[in-house]
Amino acid sequence: MTLNDIIRKNLISGAKRIDWIDGFLGPATALMYLTGSEELKNMAYIINIGELSLLKAPFIINYLSKTKDLTSILYWLPKEIFANINPVGGFLDIIPTYISRVAYKLK
What we know:
By secondary structure, the chain is mostly helical. 81% of the residues lie in helices and 0% in strands. Helix 1 (3-34) packs antiparallel against helix 2. The radius of gyration is 15 Å and the shape is elongated. The two termini are 17 Å apart.
């Protein structure tokens, strides 16, 4: 197995992990926002910030450093903005956008 194969495998597994976590947390945080409870809204906000800063940002930085695929920012950024500013935007996280972009670029 070459170094490129290892990098490719790690990027694919990272993208799958993000989409798997996103598929659960996105709808969960959207439901927290929809309850109207200030405590649950605050929890959803903290979860979203944590997810972006601890999971997605490091992956995107690593992905960009390995692939130089700057167009992926145009693919992921609008979805993340909409998903985080709109109370029901978390339901968009069901769509596996990270693995679809990585698989498209690395095929």
